[in-house]
Design brief:
- By secondary structure, the protein is of the alpha/beta class.
- The protein has three domains: 260 residues, HUPs (Rossmann fold, 3-Layer(aba) Sandwich), CATH 3.40.50.620; 165 residues, Isoleucyl-tRNA Synthetase, Domain 1 (Orthogonal Bundle); 52 residues, no CATH class.
- 45% of the residues lie in helices and 14% in strands.
- Strands 4-3-9-10 form a four-stranded parallel beta sheet, with helices on both faces. The chain has a four-stranded antiparallel beta sheet with strand order 5-6-7-8.
- A hairpin with a 2-residue loop joins strand 11 and strand 12.
- The protein is elongated, with a radius of gyration of 27 Å.
Length: 503
Amino acid sequence: MKHNISIHDSLSREKVSFEPINSPFVGMYVCGPTVYGEPHLGHARSAITFDLVFRYLKYCGYKVRYVRNITDVGHLENDGDEGDDKIAKRARIEQLEPMEVAQEYTNSYHVMMDKLFVMRPSIEPRASGHIIEQIEMIQKIVDAGLAYESNGSVYFDVLKYNEKEPYGELSGRVLADLIAHAGEERRTLEGKEEKKNSFDFALWKKASPEHIMRWNSPWSEGFPGWHIECSAMSAKYLGEQFDIHGGGMDLLFPHHECEIAQSKASNHVHPAKYWLHNNMITINGQKMGKSLGNAINLSQFFSGDHPLLKKAYSPLTIRFFMLQAHYRSTLDFSNEALEAAEKGLMKMINGIRTAKSLEWNSEGATKIDDELNAEILKACAAVTEGMSNDFNSAKSIAELYNLLKSINSIKAGIISISEFKEETFNLLVNTFINFNEHVLGISDVNINNDELFIPMVEAWMETYREARAEKNFGMIDLIRAKFKAMNLIIKDSKVGSEWGYQE
């Protein structure tokens, strides 16, 4: 089945047609978290972005193998080759084993992503579980003459690699500038003199006596560099070349640039056909940072327990807010923006409930309105066209709101169902429901994170309808007050009473 999907490829810096290497199979690798702290908005944006890509490709009929790793070793402070391992440092602070820290924050990451309705990847490999594959890949690079051993550590020789392949092709970094900058640097950090050039990067690091996490290798007892893990694991599970490599824009350099160099040095091929990068997040116009007092983790958003938050926001509100912006645009969080997203989400949720309540019937048939049917077909097509244009969820959501107007008009009796052709009516309802639930991950069931919530509300509604029939105004007022406290409303009409979410 042919799908006209276009994506913005970070490597070519152009929007290109998406043509899988072996359609209908798609291989996608996304850099997951380094598990040394509580999940934050940056984790959420990347996870939601590529969850959206994963969902849409499956919606289009592709068979997707989605690999998202867990970094539990080798990621040093400041993303460099010196300093403490982020997980080992946290282990010392908390007086735990490093793998205890990694497991604790991996569990926390999973809990938070589940709350955000991020689907689990097909495979979730850990760096510490693939040391053998990393050592093998490093050996291939050494054998190719593009890496060198120094005091038990192994470094990638960027200058030698650049004689054959362009280093900096993804990020646009010019090697001459890196060389000039290197000449100005003072080599003050211990061990930095091991490198031929400061911009060479570590493939393997010899462990210092106090370093906790270490493995045997041909060069020393040590640990792998941060970049090599993704190259080794993506090749293991997706092959030497796969379709999509994704991650945050902050990983473009040096992490993804180094991945390309490693893969081409060892496997002689670009690891990914397409590179996708989601943009960054700010809070009230400022970059997030502990020093600025605006570092808010996800659990704080969900509880409202932070001085910058006016209230708690549901995980689905956070998800919907992120989906309202294109993944390549910057995204600024504020209470005002989140409250607006919350209102928009409630409209969408109410729309899903309304759409599910509509049924086709041809009673009281009037003349088919050809113009109306044509408009609906065009609007349904526009929903998928938005996502097919570089996964533009913002555009698709705008088009879904257009469909919602028709759904609400049918419910209110402004438009008669009999004005539709049956296939047009079914397309309208199914597009609205399925695109929200299966592509955007927005569902009326998901809003409360409580499977007993809707049955409880429905039970109260039965009591309300009985009270209304019996003109029991005390009970009516009591139930209305209870619903208002839960941000729910009750709508009475000639055909009965229904409940919905306060918009």
